[in-house]
Amino acid sequence: MAHIHYGTIEARSLGFYAVLGILGAITLAGLGAALYMEHHGHWITGMSNQVIWGVPHVFAVFLIVAASGALNVASIASVFGRQLYKPLARLSGLLAITLLAGGLAILVLDLGRPDRLIEAMTYYNFKSIFAWNIYLYIGFFGIVIVYLWMMMERRMNDYSKPVGMLAFIWRLTLTTGTGSIFGFLVARDAYNSAIIAPMFIIMSFEFGLAIFLVVLMAGMRWTGRELGDVVFGRLRNLLGVFVAAVLYFVTVYHLTNLYITQRHGIEGFILLHGGVYTQMFWLGQVIVGGVIPLVILFSGLGKSRALTALAAILVVLGGIAQIYVIIIGGQAYPMPLYPGKDIVSSSFFDGMVAMYSPSLPEVVLGIGGMGLALVMAAFAMRVLPFLPQSLSDADADPHYKAETAKSKAATT
Amino acid sequence: MSLNRREFIGIGGAALAGMALAPGLRLVELAGARSPEEAVTSLQRWGLLVDIGKCHDCDACVTACHEENGVTSHGRPATDPQWIRKVTLKDRQTGYVTTLPVMCQHCEEPPCVDVCPTGASFKRVDGIVLVDKHICIGCRYCMMACPYKARSFVHEDTTNQKAHAPRGKGTVESCTLCVHRVDAGRIPACVEACTKDGNKAMVFGDLKNPNSEINKRLASAPTTQLRPDLNLNTGVRYRGI
């Protein structure tokens, strides 16, 4: 394998500034939406005392989960020693940072009192998973920045393996923390399950790699760099494996609940008669986010770059649907306060499926977070060499020369 | 009557001694009362008993609570805060109908306190679960965790606040067990209203005092908690669910 060369995005590229401008505008719109929500109060959103966390949390959790997953490509190179993934490791670390920043920005701006962020940094309740997560998120930024430094500074390259190992363990812990926000909640039937944390980890593999693949394909294509079939094919197959693994975890989660009589209510709601949540589960999460990408990635269709990119985008959309079903579907279904009783009346919506329709500012805030993540990544790729100059088979595949040498030897 | 010098010195000395000692004696007496620093003690645990057999179609407790604490409606039921609510239940098997007030259950092991990242959600040593409005960041994790749907998020600006019950847009709030009244030796507004205008279905008292009325009532008939399976040891108990 030839020595890997990296380069920044060309300054003169008009297309680059157009992309930067569009992403910047999306980010600013998100900020404007947040200011609007904070000024008027949350009553102007779709959120209520029934559906407490809305679309901003869907996007925030999606991005935070995807962030730790985006780091996987770097981990495969540093921790598991796969040379093929090494040229991709810088971009992987970069996306991990920017996706987390985008997700956290949404989370903070959706707080009732974002101006009190300093309270969250100075008062800690160490039994709170949120408090653990504050440490896990800040630590993740620090570790991945150091990891990038080890990878990008030649003199420090030797340290990229131990730091990569630390980053890998940290990211598994981080996603466990994110999943446990829901997994440890005893009050609601949709949560309160130990499988949620590992399911979030496998979801992070899937979402992170899908975003990574889309950014890599766009970045290489738009800057006129080659992405060879070997790297492309490996990432495509890996994404397929992750899609299948997520479907497996989702199946086990629902089978468990289907076996437990107490949870038949929530299962019937999500799987059969929950209206938008049932549709979002079957159409969004399973068909769009699972079955269609699987067919594309594991059939001859996957040879097409465009269809593979489409599959990755479908995984992202299906992932957002999945988080929507988990967060909003899980809250819309009423809490089991009075087992064995029907609720005749309540002024506070006891026993009723909660109504929720996302408002425009919420959606704009959520998409703004995605814009922030991508604009940060684009800007960073402009100023620092994150993208390899070439990922052609000859440049990226460690076995490339050996194979050609072998085939040459065989022919002579 | 005339005093000789010896008597004058004697009486004068006694008066001086009295003046010097009296404040000290007064202090001893004060020490028996609760100073602001020791107003809360774990020797007490405040609780409520609701006798559902006596609770009927009436919402005196709800009106009194919201009046007392300045909890006002904006005419938007989905986002308006409710510190206490009336719920009517029908047994799925027998069809038996009951009605009961539901509010913060003041758990001994409150899930809202477990999950709060800043510690704004806290339990006083006398068992009252509260929100510190100064460090609540409005993340609503406590509302996700509360199994009783007891908490409300303040979705919009508040007006006509009561000095003893500060409220603020962007923070979470719930029943305080009328902590300001309890600290002054009074009973919560809901209990007072139920006793005066309602059906005398609510009893407030110290769960740790074996001689309190609430304890005698709890000991004399079967009662239950809401979601007893969660093992939260709630301070609010129900008779007749």
Q: Count the helices of chain A. How many?
A: 15
Query: Helix-strand pattern of chain B, N to C?
Result: HEHEEHEEHEEHHEHE
Tell me which CATH architecture of chain A applies here: Up-down Bundle
The separation of the N and C termini of chain B measures: 78 Å
CATH fourth-tier homologous superfamily of chain A:
Formate dehydrogenase/DMSO reductase domain
Structural description of this entry:
The complex is a heterodimer of chains A (412) and B (241). Chain A has 412 residues and is mostly helical. In chain A, 69% of the residues lie in helices and 2% in strands. Chain A has a single domain, classed as Formate dehydrogenase/DMSO reductase domain (Formate dehydrogenase/DMSO reductase fold). Chain A has helices at 14-40, 55-70, 72-78, 89-109, 117-122, 129-152, 160-183, 196-222, 229-259, 264-273, 276-298, 305-332, 360-383, 393-396, 400-411, and strands at 6-7, 341-346, 387-388. Chain B is α+β, with helices and mostly antiparallel strands and 241 residues long. Chain B has two domains: 5-33; 43-239, 2-Layer Sandwich (Alpha-Beta Plaits), CATH 3.30.70. Chain B contains seven helices and nine strands, in the order H-E-H-E-E-H-E-E-H-E-E-H-H-E-H-E. Chain B has helices at residues 5-32, 60-69, 111-115, 141-145, 179-183, 189-196, 213-220, and strands at 46-51, 84-91, 97-103, 121-123, 129-131, 152-153, 172-173, 202-206, 236-239. The longest helix of chain B is centred in the first third of the chain and has 28 residues, at 5-32. The radius of gyration of chain B is 24 Å and the shape is globular. Mean pLDDT of chain B is 90; it is low at 26-33. Chains A and B meet through helix 5, helix 6 and strand 2 of A and strand 2, helix 3, helix 4 and strand 6 of B.
